[in-house]
Fold this sequence. Notes:
alpha+beta; HIT family, subunit A; 3 helices
Amino acid sequence: MSDCVFCRIIAGELPSSVVHEDERTIAFMDINPASHGHALVIPKTHSRDLLEVGPDDLAACTSAAQMVATRAVERLGADGVNLLNCCGVDAWQTVFHFHIHVVPRYRDDPERDRLKLPWIPEAGDPESVAAAAAALRG
């Protein structure tokens, strides 16, 4: 898709700092990083989001994200890694080509880790949780 920034990166029309590439995926550095080593993993075949990506491309992206995450821990000294996918405008998706953020985390190091998640876990209403579970089954 000529108007998709990630498709243009795949085509070599836009610059990127590629850290991994295989038959199905490409991983490159995020230009607006949340932390030191923040990378994106995308399928080479365009799909809008998590709901459209094919199962083989999803599996390939997950495997590539795991490899990049492992490198972040081993080579950058990350204390942990968040994998994040945003699906839809209301879930903060801004580029409409499926992608997984690989965000290395650094304990007590605000210079290398600026990610602040907005969600603070707290107990849910048991009836609401049960109703959602029932709707999601089968």
